[in-house]
Design goal:
membrane, 0% strand, transmembrane, mainly alpha
Length: 155
């Protein structure tokens, strides 16, 4: 959202910090940036709606009979695949958001072939976001597929 607002308030002459004409990003880069923003927002919305649906299902089951000792007895496959679907939506949304920021850096600071600050920003972005995505994705896969549901006999 911040990128959309930034574009709408940017004066065309001050759209980039690039000092040379050959370092200015093309119109295609700007178009691609907007497409990546929309796609990333779509995946984040998908992820959020799946997670909200799981939360709603758990809350509905919990409120059906408050004296029931088996609260939130939700189908484990539904929960497993719902969590996995939500995590996939988040990861893909993050990837497209990162791609849009890659293009945003080129629009605001200059193309990567000119070197300098755009490269530093790119390396920082990919390093930190990439490592965080690896941690999140591995944790989500572990939580979705390798954590078994506890049964009453386990106590």
């Amino acid at each position: 959202m911040a990128i959309f607002i930034g574009f709408s308030l940017t004066v065309p002459e001050a759209a980039t910090a690039a000092t040379r004409v050959e370092c200015t990003a093309s119109r295609e880069t700007v178009r691609r940036l907007i497409v990546y923003e929309v796609v990333s927002f779509s995946f984040f919305l998908f992820s959020s709606l799946i997670a909200q649906s799981l939360k709603l299902a758990i809350n509905l089951i919990n409120n059906m009979d408050p004296t029931d000792p088996h609260k939130a007895d939700i189908d484990p496959d539904l929960l497993k695949y719902g969590l996995f679907g939500s995590a996939v939506g988040s990861v893909v949304g993050c990837l497209f958001l990162m791609l849009s920021i890659v293009d945003f850096i080129q629009v605001k600071l200059g193309v990567y072939s000119c070197g300098g600050k755009p490269i530093y920003a790119l390396v920082t972005l990919v390093g930190f976001v990439g490592s965080a995505l690896l941690v999140y994705a591995s944790t989500a896969v572990y939580a979705s597929f390798f954590v078994e549901r506890a049964t009453p006999d386990d106590d």
